[in-house]
From TrEMBL:
The keyword Ion transport does not apply. The lineage of its organism: Eukaryota, Metazoa, Chordata, Craniata, Vertebrata. Residues 377-614 form the Nidogen G2 beta-barrel domain. This is Nidogen-1. Residues 106-268 form the NIDO domain.
Amino acid sequence: MLAAMRRSGPAWTRALLLQLLLAGPGGCLSRQELFPFGPGQGDLELEAGDDRISPALELKGALRFFDKSDIHSVYVTTNGIIATSEPPAKESHPGLFPPTFGAVAPFLADLDTTDGLGKVYYREDLSPSVTQLAAECVQRGFPEVSFQPSSVVVVTWDSVAPYQGPSKDPAQEGKRNTFQAVLASSDSSSYAIFLYPEDGLQFSTTFSKKEEDQVPALVAFSQGLVGLLWKSDGAYNIFANDRESIGNLAKSSNSGQQGVWVFEIGSPATASGVISSDVNLGLDDGTEYDDEDYDSVTHLGLEDVGTTSFPYETPRRGDTGTHNRPSVLSPRHLATERPPGPPTERTRSFQLPVERFPQQHPQVIDVDEVEETGVGSPQRVNGKVKGRIFVGNSQVPIVFENTDLHSYVVMNHGRSYTAISTIPETVGYSLLPLAPVGGIIGWMFAVEQDGFKNGFSITGGEFTRQAEVTFVGHPGKLVIKQQFSGIDEHGHLTIDTELEGHVPQIPFGSSVHIEPYTELYHYSRGVITSSSTREYTVTEPERDGAAPSHVHTYQWRQTITFQECTHDDSQLALPSTQQLSVDSVFVLYNQEERILRYALSNSIGPVRDGSPDALQNPCYIGTHGCDTNAACRPGPGTQFTCECSIGFRGDGRTCSDIDECLEQPSVCGSHAICNNHPGTFRCECVEGHRFSEEGTCVAVVDERPINYCASGLHDCDIPQRAQCIYTGGSSYTCSCLPGFSGDGRACQDVDECQPSRCHPDAFCYNTPGSFTCQCKPGYQGDGFHCVPGEAEKTRCQHEREHILGAAGAADPQRPRPPGLFVPECDEHGHYTPTQCHGSTGYCWCVDRDGREVEGTRTRPGMRPPCLSTVAPPIDHGPSVPTSVIPLPPGTHLLFAQTGKIEHLPLEGSTMKKTEAKALLHAPDKVIIGLAFDCVDKMVYWTDISEPSIGRASLHGGEPTTIIRQDLGSPEGIALDHLGRNIFWTDSYLDRIEVAKLDGTQRRVLFETDLVNPRGIVTDSVRGNLYWTDWNRDSPKIETSYMDGTNRRILVQDDLGLPNGLTFDAYSSQLCWVDAGTNRAECLSPSQPSRRKVLEGLQYPFAVTSYGKNLYYTDWKTNSVVAVDLAISKETDTFHPQKQTRLYGVTTALSQCPQGHNYCSVNNGGCTHLCLATPGSRTCRCPDNTLGVDCIERK
């Protein structure tokens, strides 16, 4: 084995350099990224000196180590050890390894803190912030393990010096080491995390009192002595014991983050050895190195580990068998390397083509079967694709969004494999020629010839590519936009791709063949350009014994822009022109799986003699001067011609658009409108018509009847005054509801009180479409039947009369005594939700029984935004249907009034006030908060009268209640349309909760430090949550991740009564309205500065955003107000017909905002709640999940 170890230098060096290159912008671990330490964190400090041992640190949470599970105390030494039992005095300084006691050694060496030469800090920490930080480190190293520690031991050796002995080494003068060991334990397992910051290890050897010489430090674990009668050395693992491997501790990693090393040290799997993490720096490597490359791995003498021979490996999770002998692993020998032997299978999530099969009979194998031998380190690229593509002559685009792209690159072959999933079959075959969509990834990792650089070496993986594809003989173009965002936390390159435009139609079942080609890339500061003209062959399915094939030509132009490093002198030596050579091009569309696949091999180097590009033809090098709407046609030598693209005319140097609509007025046919576009035109059917399969506009009634009543596209009066009656086919009639008169399209209220329908001893009150009756004073009854006698007084009326009578102020003509509080009752005798003291000016909220709601009392001159929990009495008269009236297409504002939800269509940002209609009648509810699900087109609301949370489809149907248990006063509600969760505030229970969209899997996120929580919104793409708390003593706006972590105050100063809150996904702006300061304000959560949008608001309650506007509901004016954010001005106001208080408002978008989070696909892999966080997700269990098979993990 040692022979193999001695021969791995060059391969190892290349692998490590590539790892460090792909480790991302984070680089080495900084000192600030260590776990918090020092006296301010509650740390104990080890006595200064040489060979010191701390008193026992008693642990509240037991530590597990090797096969032990009951370690309740540890000892910390100066010399880089955490001991699980007290070290004997004779072993206080480093000597033979393994020691007789259990030891965790992040840097075992003779260290010295005499006379202030550094300090050693230690503590046990149970705080959520530290346990969560430890859990995240372990999760990176062991992503398949769900681990949440309850106890964390943090030991920090801060700027400690080497012991130098009698003859001091001048080279070590002033050298200091800083490192950290963290032991994290749960009820079932323990993990060790070693952290080595950049420049933290300034020396790797110390003077040995035993050897009387400089010896290297050691990174190791030891079980100590085992056995009852006959003691012997237990299991131990030496991880690093030479200068070179010690020096690499801060530069490399086994957990994917430089300087951070993670080990499983205590669980059923560690009885015979510690288990190392198996995650590379940005690469899932799987590479094996040839024996002849092992010559420079450090020679580790077998005598150092106390055994004659052992396998060169570290136990891994899931390994079978026992490891009863210690193992050695150099940090320069990656944790994923395997001992020589047959290649092993690695799991992959998509398929790759096998090139040894003929192109005419494409076959694929699953990547699970691909063996990663010595062919080079693979790199993964993940991203999303969206497209809006016109195929052939179709006037209707094929649209797809949120489609997954996965790519896999074999590094030293420069071969890229790209798979794009769920591509509609209507466009899949027609996208086969677009191999360069994945080819850009091939350029990124093309094999570099000496003196030339591939895309990653130049851009670092962060750039924007825009390509324009012109298909000769076909109108229109295809534009490809790709954004590369660098390496993510999983070591994968991320990419977003957008396709828009026209492609020629390729028949179903066809195959496409692309010959090898070359392409010239021209480099200047921060910009790379290229253009090429090439061919592809389409072979159609065999018909009548023949398979027709056709050769087509297309031209590619692309521009790549990136942020250049001004300090990178190597870029100056980069050739201005490089040639990309592409061969072994493979393209395939799998109709059954709807997966599009591209594979290409790429190399980058000089312009080759004999290649077409060697002639430096202007068409190839981009100096042709053709119009941007022309194609360059290369000729002999350096000759070329310019041809205007189809849809343009001119000499090629100058091309002008052809207005097909003007020159061919009938080009679109009847019942259609022609719209001219650059290079093409588009036909749109007039209202009442749509495209048939033949591409002509036909009347809608010719295809199928439409129920205008069900679709809401009728012209009857609003549902409160008229009903639409479907009469079959596409016909309907309009009829006024009882209480209204007219033709059904315009209905007027009938005054039922003329003549009165009430009892003679009752008053009649006319209402729209109905009327109410109320017995006169001295009579009681329902108004339709009245008998002598007083109506029974309510609690509020009794209290009011009692106070006034006792004070002798029952006569309204007499003044009230000063200092007297008299409750206010509404017209129905209920307590008004806001009560004020006439003398002091203080105001507060009360419940339905008149009791003050804690935390709502405001100072004089400010009225709290109190909510009535009592639904108004239902009017006598015709009943109103409670089913949802379907919404017409487009974007709408939805707003709540007591007992109903209305919709207000938007045209651009303009409110179409004449088309406002009721969406839902719920006369027994007090609806407060609203949220909209743009995926399923559902509206969600909170109701404080029952209380409950409900929802209804905008397509129509009956509303449903999804939550009615364990609610106090649910007010604000928000929705994560990507993770499919709802969040709400409860101002009575003072908490914030989350649940799935159907109301199941509830979990309390916060129930502390909340007084009057109200508005709540989500940033679904970034995984953030925001909410307001109008606590009269300390109003604030807070934020956290959706999983409840990283909670913090965002805004606290200069707030009064922050009510409404909205987050605009398009501008990433958080805006709110404040009824105390009477202002609307906005900020970007990533920046502390806030902007006052508008002052002088009346009494704003809720707010939403769309386009350039904010829309808020106002309690004083009972209206919806539009505010233009650009000019900070109110631009329009809508007053509903029913002048009662307005509550929540939200925007019902016609389509969802772009973007995705880690819960978008397959619930993020979670068994229950998937809660998004920035760049990740957390799997959480619902509350009260006893007996439920739920797994929590990050």
